[in-house]
């Protein structure tokens, strides 16, 4: 008798679930790391000047969007799972989860670093908040591109 775990792993359902897990889990890891990096910088700034809380909180929250993109892709994938799912469809769903998962991870981490630098910028020059946002949003573009790639890939399944 075959092990139930191996049956699931090498099945259309297993591949589809793995794709959904990668899309959300990996992107969420990047978001949590990025938010943590920016949060450390924000805490230091707010300790010195509590009036800068709102500006620093906005910058700290930016890296959380990657997990939202991963969650949306995972939900779309779960909605595509049917009893008739083929191995090709399951494998394609696995592949569709990779862009948003892995690019989401990296962009979340790097966006957190850029947001932390922006937080340090507004510690000295609060009027530069717009500049700090633009720097951090530039990193966001890559998460958006990967989200779009995953959407387009899922559209072909």
How does this structure look, described?
There is one protein chain. This protein has 157 residues and is mostly helical. It has a single domain (13-155), classed as Four Helix Bundle (Hemerythrin (Met), subunit A), CATH 1.20.120.610. It contains six helices and no strands. It has helices spanning 4-9, 12-48, 53-61, 65-80, 87-124, 129-155. α2 packs antiparallel against α4 and α4 runs antiparallel to α5 (87-124).
What is the fold's blueprint, element by element?
Elements: H1 4-9, H2 12-48, H3 53-61, H4 65-80, H5 87-124, H6 129-155
CATH C-level label: Mainly Alpha
What is the CATH homology-level superfamily? lithium bound rotor ring of v- atpase
CATH topology grouping: Four Helix Bundle (Hemerythrin (Met), subunit A)
Number of strands: 0
CATH architect. name? Up-down Bundle
Strand content: under 5%
Helical amount among residues, as a percent range?
over 70%
Series of secondary-structure elements, N-terminal to C-terminal = HHHHHH
Mean pLDDT: 93
Question: What is the 3D form?
Answer: elongated
Assembly annotation = single chain
Question: How many structurally independent domains?
Answer: 1
DSSP helical segment count: 6
What value does the Rg take, in angstroms? 19 Å
Q: What composes the largest sheet?
A: none
Class from secondary-structure proportions: mainly alpha
Which residue ranges are poorly predicted, with pLDDT under 50 across at least 5 consecutive positions?
none
Distance between the termini: 32 Å
């Amino acid at each position: 008798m075959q092990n139930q775990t191996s049956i699931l792993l090498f099945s259309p359902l297993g591949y589809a679930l793995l794709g959904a897990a990668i899309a959300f889990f990996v992107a969420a890891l990047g978001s949590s790391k990025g938010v943590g990096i920016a949060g450390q910088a924000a805490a230091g700034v707010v300790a010195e000047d509590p009036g800068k809380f709102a500006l620093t909180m906005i910058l700290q929250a930016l890296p959380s969007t990657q997990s939202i993109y991963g969650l949306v892709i995972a939900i779309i994938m779960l909605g595509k799972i049917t009893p008739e799912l083929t191995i090709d469809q399951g494998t394609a769903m696995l592949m569709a989860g990779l862009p948003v998962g892995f690019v989401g991870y990296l962009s979340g981490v790097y966006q957190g670093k850029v947001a932390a630098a922006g937080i340090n910028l507004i510690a000295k020059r609060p009027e530069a908040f717009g500049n700090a946002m633009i720097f951090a949003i530039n990193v966001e573009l890559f998460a958006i591109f990967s989200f779009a790639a995953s959407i387009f890939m899922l559209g072909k399944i």
